[in-house]
Amino acid sequence: MSDDTQIVILAGGLGTRLSEETRFVPKPMVEIGGKPIIWHIMNIYAAYGQNNFLVACGYKGELIKEYFANYFRHNSDLFVDLKSGNIELGDAKSPDWKIGCIDTGLNTMTGGRLLKIRKHLVSSTFMVTYGDGVGNINIDELLAFHKSHGKIATVTAVHPPARFGGMDLKGNRVSSFAEKSPAHAGWINGGFFAFEPEVLDYLEDDTTRLEAEPLSRLAADGQLMAYQHEGYWQPMDTLREKIMLESLWQSGSAPWKVW
């Protein structure tokens, strides 16, 4: 379902729970398999023909800008004539993506970041996600679902990743023990939103958190629908999760690699 739908990636947070990495780079630039996680997220969308991105930058946003500004050069063969200074590029391996990197402030909240890029939104329907979560989301199905229900907002509902082993107790005796299955858990916000422009009217200012009052009000108004994703989804909030994602990528069977 390729069209000109814009994808907004919220990439401005401080990433304090991953401070081992984010002291030096913004969280979307933390690498999995030698590529920033934002590159992985973009590839999920691009696998469905969605190539038009707006990155809402904040903390260390200059590193995101530099990465994409130099992407073509870094992914091409380079021929340099040291005497003349002439540089020629060849055999480029860059994807057909259009990327806007917008400075939305250091301390702006997620809803406020959306407001700050409002003037750059030209597509009627647009998508939004976070710069730190991956999954094998079927973007075609998500968009089709959003357009089918006639409401102005869709959130991708996911099961929380299993973090702890589950136990059944009889007195002090463990009667059974198993890794918790996410299927037994409830639903949480997994990002990967689809919005109509009217959603922006639910946002107030820089202090607005998208996940707080705006989504609550949309739900109360009957305007928020859930696309239920039963497949893989994983945020990268901690060093443990970063290492886990890296291990999956190195194994050659990363579940989010849909491209």
CATH secondary-structure class: Alpha Beta
Kindly report how far apart the N and C termini lie.
Answer: 15 Å
Largest sheet: 8 strands, mixed
| CATH topology title | Spore Coat Polysaccharide Biosynthesis Protein SpsA, Chain A
Strand content: 25-35%
The best one-word shape is: globular
Enumerate the spans where pLDDT stays under 50 for 5 or more consecutive residues: none
Count of individual helical segments = 8
The assigned CATH architecture is Alpha-Beta Complex
What does this 3D model show about the protein?
This protein is of the alpha/beta class. It has a single domain (6-251), classed as Alpha-Beta Complex (Spore Coat Polysaccharide Biosynthesis Protein SpsA, Chain A). Helices cover 25% and strands 27% of the residues. It has 8 helices and 16 strands. The strands form 5 sheets. Strands 1, 4, 7, 8, 10, 13, 14 and 15 form an 8-stranded mixed beta sheet that branches. The chain has a two-stranded antiparallel sheet with strand order 2-3. The longest helix is centred in the C-terminal third of the chain and has 13 residues, at 239-251. It is globular, with a radius of gyration of 20 Å. The relative contact order is 0.19. The mean pLDDT is 92.
